Amino acid sequence: MINIATVRDIAKLANVSASTVSRVLNLDQTINVSIDTRKRIFEAAEQLSYQKPERDTSSLTQYALIHWYDEVDELNDPFFLSIRLGIERECNLNNISLEKYFNSGCGHIYDIHTKYQGIIVLGKFSHEYINYFEEHTKNLILVHDFSKDFKFESVIVNFEELTKDVLDTMIKCGHEKIGFIGGREKVIGSTKTLIDERETAFIDYMTKKGFFHERYIKIGNFNYSDGYTMMKSLIDDLKGDLPTSIFIASDSLAIGAMRALKDCNINVPDTVSIIACNDIPAAKYTTPSLSTVRISTDFMGMLSAQLLINQNQRKEKLRYIIPHEIILRDTFKKRTEDLHAR
User: Fold this and answer.
1) What pLDDT digit, counting tens, does each position of 206-250 carry?
2) Spatial CA neighbour of 91 closest among 51, 120, 69
């Protein structure tokens, strides 16, 4: 059974005040705390939500984790922090030494000096970088990306299916004016920017339903500040003609968007309902609490480590799709008047 962590529990583990925990988890940009403190709080929140106890082990095998984020970016999008911690826990439980490479953001980003028995690649990288990583191991696992030819094993989320499930939920609850706030990702080692699956799935689904309106869409980067800016832009552009419900592609974006709605005195969920994506620890502590799609990120990390550990025991290359679950909290409500009119 999973223990639901409280703010006080997190504060005790991170050795900070409960008010500091609350403000950090809500991505309050005005709080003056160090990156190390923010990291301790997010990691404590993840640790208290995890089912398996950690235990000290001696290192027998050496693997590497290559992360496409730097440590600040990871805190701004805790989806990847949770995956990383899942990888670390599973390696710890299996006597594996894990060396971590974060994105340095300059020059030759990843300077690898040794060979590894296995490498987990977290994020999206160019073919040149993947080839570079292959020079340092025979075993490579991709997380949040995959190779179309099944050259590498991978662990991914089906964001297209996830988006359709969210939109189905909204429409069944009486919403037809539905907006979308999303982001796009950049491939490391390339100038290429990827259009997110949630964005393309939203446009395709809403077009087929006859509900698509381009003016209800805003696209930026996956962080709190862009969430605030895009929602503020949506409010200014639509002049009171806001969608009744908005799917927001990440919790960090959603928390920023909710701040913009609050600053403009727009009620959530009475005027605008919100469903976000990822279910980061902050989601249950927002006011109102954030409806979101739970992705088993800790399991995602654990599974990628298990795949790497057992890769030499099979010939076939596997691709795992991680399940998701819609968690409805206080930011979403039915449009009962619309349902009664049908």
Assistant:
1) 999 999 999 999 999 999 999 999 999 999 999 889 999 999 999
2) 120
With residue 322 as reference, give the H or E element that holds it: strand 319-322
Tell me how far apart the terminal alpha carbons of the chain are, to the nearest angstrom.
42
Please report which residue ranges of 77-196 form alpha helices under DSSP H.
78-93, 127-134, 159-172
Closest CA to 21 of 5, 3, 42: 42
Q: Give me the amino acid identity at 247.
A: F
Around Cβ 172, how many Cβ atoms within 10 Å? 10
Q: Give the span between the Cα atoms of 342 and 338, in whole angstroms.
A: 7
Report in angstroms the alpha-carbon separations of 160 from 167, 217, 251.
11, 17, 17
In three-state form (DSSP H/G/I as H, E/B as E, the rest C), the secondary structure along 119-163 is EEEECCECHHHHHHHHCCCCCEEEECCCCCCCCCEEEEECHHHHH
Q: pLDDT tens across 115-132, in order?
A: 999 999 999 999 999 999
213: Cα separation from own chain's centroid: 26
CB 279 within 8 A of CB 322: no
Span 21-34, mean pLDDT?
81
